[in-house]
Design a protein that fits this description.
alpha+beta; 6 helices; 31% helix; 31% strand; 9 strands
């Protein structure tokens, strides 16, 4: 589905020939993040934010584009100069769990981008010392539930009304050396102080 072309740049080629670069989000992505949000369908926004949210507020954009690695981190997929997907986690200082969220531009659904970013995000979270990522998902969101099921990591789910919280367990995760290096590179790119492997 997706193959790497340049591990140093974390460049990937999708099955449909689209070339993407994966990297941590940065403050200079603010305009591109607003543009991505403006392209999202109402359905995709609802599944991501559980509400209408036609625009991101300046405070949202500021928070979403500033990451530190340990508590808050986001990877973006970039096509030329456009952001086409974002996967993020956000926790609390001193805790080993964080909330996970992901969104992919509607035009690129079903191309493996969501899985690609979540796999990389899980590796970064593991490298940053987290042991659980929790995703709140609408019970009818078959795409996200299917994606979490096929991640290949242990998980459990709790349902509360229309929402399912899926807890992904990273504690037994054993990524390859190459994946660990890539995750550590992403953390370093985000300005995080990476402890020795
Ligand atoms: C959920 C979402 C991120 C999936 O992204 P995607 O790039 O289309 O997903 P992928 O192509 O990587 O799919 C990976 C796997 O997920 C599952 N999946 C994806 N779409 C699916 C669907 N519509 N129904 C069932 N399973 C689906 C499949 O197992 C798929 O593997 P396969 O392609 O080998 O069959 C995307 O649909 C999205 O942005 N949705 C709106 C935001 C959202 O729901 N976020 C989750 C709450 S935080």
């Amino acid at each position: 589905m997706v193959r790497g072309t340049d591990p140093a740049a974390d460049e990937v080629l999708l099955r449909n020939g689209t070339r993407l670069v994966v990297r941590p989000i940065r403050p200079a992505d603010a305009d591109a993040l607003v543009a991505l949000h403006a392209r999202l369908s109402a359905d995709t926004i609802y599944r991501r934010y559980f509400g209408l949210r036609p625009h991101l507020s300046p405070a949202d954009v500021d928070r979403f584009t500033r990451v530190d690695g340990r508590v808050r981190f986001a990877l973006v997929a970039v096509q030329e100069s456009d952001l086409v997907a974002v996967a993020r986690y956000e926790g609390r200082p001193g805790e080993c769990n964080a909330e996970l969220a992901v969104v992919v531009d509607d035009a690129l659904h079903h191309q493996g981008v969501g899985r690609l970013l979540l796999e990389r995000l899980a590796d970064v979270a593991h490298e940053a010392g987290l042991d659980t990522l929790a995703a709140d998902v609408l019970a009818g969101n078959a795409a996200m539930l299917g994606l979490l099921r096929t991640l290949g990591l242990p998980r459990r789910a709790e349902r509360d009304g229309d929402t399912v919280t899926v807890f992904v367990d990273l504690s037994g995760s054993e990524p390859s050396t190459a994946r660990r290096q890539r995750a550590r590179q992403h953390l370093a790119q985000a300005g995080s102080v990476v402890p020795p492997a």
